[in-house]
Amino acid sequence: MKHLKYKQFQAEIILLNVRWYLAYPLSFRNLEEMMSDRGIDIHHTSIYRWVQEYSPKLVKNFNKRKRPVSKSWRMDETYIKVRGKWRYLYRAVDKQGKTVDFMLSSKRDVSAAASFLCRAIGNNGIPDKINIDKSGANTAGINLYNQIESTNIEIRRCKYLNNIVA
Known about the structure:
With 166 residues, the protein is an alpha/beta fold. It contains six helices and five strands; from the N terminus they run αααβββαβαβα. It has helices at residues 11-23, 28-37, 44-65, 110-124, 136-149, 159-162; strands spanning 72-82, 85-94, 99-105, 129-132, 154-157. Helix 2 (28-37) packs across helix 3 and helix 4 crosses helix 5. It starts with 10 loop residues before the first helix and ends with a helix.
């Protein structure tokens, strides 16, 4: 990445710390300690700034290189506790089980479902059909997308086909 050219630390060290922070449940202070064990003196706030600066760029770069998914998706939402608060996890996989996209939302409504669908389609292309359970929000979100974008995404309601998402 050309953005890493004139930094105090080598690009490999910066990317290693960002990757470890994103991939594993480590704190910035854990990473600071791990680097100091390797003889590299980095302050935890530097690692924090790197994560804030490079995470969006890495996600954008990864999405460009992502393998294509099929045109038949399974879409579902569930609720999980994140930092003590209940959130809705919207997720979609293709018929082979490859992750299409996922999103956390504080609400389970049409706007959240439509927002997730727009993001997933923006990153992966328009599917031919989407299998969902009997969720009214997902149905309304897909119908809203079809209406706004003049597409014809088929909605299939089959809870057994949708179990691949879980």
